[in-house]
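Record copied across here:
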Amino acid sequence: MIYDSLTHIEAYQGIHPGVYKGLKLLAETDFSQMEDKRYEVDGEDLFFFLQTYENKPENPTPESHKKYIDIQCILSGVEAMDVAPLEEMTGIAEARPEGDIWLHHGPAPSRVILTPGKFAVLFPGDAHAPGIAVGAPMTCRKAVVKVKM
């Protein structure tokens, strides 16, 4: 997992070309007039979706992905995301392979706080429980970039 600010994306240029392209997209795009939906950039290799939602006091089922890297970036609001190595999960709560999502049982004891301008890059080995309220629940808007492995 990578947790950083969009002002530092040049440091990630050599990690994976799709990750860098996704970070540039987040840094250079004005999402304010775009509606919540999926947007294709390079077909199934790189796409993103915008979503607006109310965060919750907890997220007891961390998720993981096998085919895609997630880049999550809050556009408005504040949310916490609990994270842990996938091998620390104790079982699968639900599998949705058609959507490349697995929900897990197990604690995710490390927490990052996403505010506008911060991002988290989550690789297939990273279990993550997003959408957690920091204090009282609030409405958040997020961009999630999906990068094919």
